[in-house]
Amino acid sequence: MNQNVLLSLPHRKEAELPFDEYSVVSKKKLINERIRLNDLLFSLNQEENKDEIIVNTINLITELLLLLNKKIKIASRQNRQVAFDNCFRGFTCVVMIIYCVSLLFFPLWMIKVSFQAETDYLYNTVGFIKEWDFTNYLKVFSELSYSNKIVYTNNGIKIVSSNIWKMALTSIGYSFGISFVSVALTTGVAYVLAKYKFFGSKFLFSLGIILMIIPIVGNAPSAMVIRSKWLIPTYDNLFLTIMTSNCTAFSGLNFLLLYGAFKSLPWDYAEAGFVDGGGNYSAFFKMYLPMILPTSAVIFLLSFLGAWNDYASFKI
Questions:
Q1: Which of 82-96, 117-131, 141-155 has the lowest mean pLDDT?
Q2: 123 lies in a domain?
Q3: What is the DSSP letter of 288?
Q4: 3-state SS of 165-199?
Q5: Looking at the whole model, is its pTM more than 0.70?
Q6: Which domain holds residue 262?
Q7: What distance in Å separates the CA atoms of residue 150 and residue 154, rounded to the nearest whole number?
Q8: pLDDT higher for 125 or 180?
Q9: Which end of the chain is more exposed for a tag (fewer CB within 10 A), N or C?
Q10: 278 and 196, same structural domain?
Q11: Is residue 172 part of a domain?
């Protein structure tokens, strides 16, 4: 349409949209504009003497109505998408809240039972505490702390002493030692295989994959023979127990995670360190290890939890 004719329209202001063609407008506002333009179009069609200006105005309004209908369809589709996203997000939040509450149920129930009397527990297992008993913890401390207790073993009678705090420190030392040794060895192996090429490196990498495939179920008899007093006396030695535990063994999954993390880091850092007079050890401890520390910390935490819940190693 000729711009001069458009500027001379008596209904020019009314035949214009209050927003741009590409602007984001709510569906309600688009519908109101369509109603207004329909009313204007109806009034112009009622004119008896339609000159060129009125005809051009009617054509302009018709084009604007087509544009509005298209934008209303797009807005409706976007509103449905937003509604679906909100419903899905709300459903996900509800499911996660229920899941988190279910995770807290058993620890809270365990704490509740620990303060519950025996008779109250038998007849009121799930309900609230009706009869409190604070002597349960005293019984635990007294029964787990003993001295000069006679224990019958395969090698004869043995007099042992124990203390609950000693047991706790042993568990903490065992879990921390296993996690530290496992993460330290796995991190070192992953770094060397990821950053250095030498004879046998591909074989060692393939060996790490193969170790993930070999099943470890059924190896308890072999472990019992190896850890017996005639080969490796680890029953009374915490250090040897840590070194021979199945949790300290090479973890293929942790190796792959650390290998991928080291592989993603460029070798330019080490070359810059070499230029400044650094060596291979400084490149590892001062450059790559700090960058990989978050991944190693997560693996250390998972290893610590696995060792903390490991009861099989002490039963072998």
A1: 141-155
A2: no
A3: I
A4: HHHHHHHHHHHHHHHHHHHHHHHHHHHHHHHCCCC
A5: no
A6: 163-315
A7: 13
A8: 180
A9: N
A10: yes
A11: yes
Residue 173 shares a structural domain with residue 65: no
* Assigned domain for 82 exists: yes
Domain-ending residue, one of 78, 96, 114: 96
Amino acid sitting at position 64: L
Judge whether 116 lies within some domain. Answer: no
DSSP string, 112-123: HHHTB-HHHHHH
Which residues are 132's β-sheet partners? 116
Burial of 205 (0-12, 13-18, 19+ CB in 10 A): middle
pLDDT at residue number 106: 86
Contact of 44 with 54, CB cutoff 8 Å: yes
Average pLDDT for residues 111-118, to the nearest whole number? 86
Residue 116: is it exposed, middle or buried by C-beta count within 10 angstroms (0-12/13-18/19+)? buried
Continuous segment of H or E residues that includes residue 159? strand 156-162
Confidence of residue 130 (pLDDT cuts 50, 70, 90): confident
91, 222: one domain: no
Instruction: State how far the Cα of 70 lies from the Cα of 59, in Å rounded to an integer.
Output: 17
Longest dimension (CA), the chain: 122
C-alpha distances (whole Å) from 277 to each of 184, 272, 280 are 26, 9, 10
- Listed in sequence order, the residues at least 6 apart from 196 whose beta carbon sits closer than 8 Å to its beta carbon are none
- DSSP letters spanning 63-96: HHHHHHHHHHHHHHHHHHHHHHHHHHHHHHHHHH
- Number of domains composing the chain: 2
What distance lies between CA 265 and its chain's CA centroid?
Answer: 22
151 Rama sector, left if φ>0, alpha if ψ -120 to 50, beta otherwise: beta
Question: CA 285, 263, 295 angle in degrees (round to 5)?
Answer: 60
Which CATH number characterizes residue 260's domain?
A: 1.10.3720.10
Picking from 238, 247, 263, 240, the residue whose alpha carbon sits closest to that of residue 185 is: 247
Sequence letter at residue 237: N
Cβ–Cβ under 8 Å, residues 186 and 299: yes
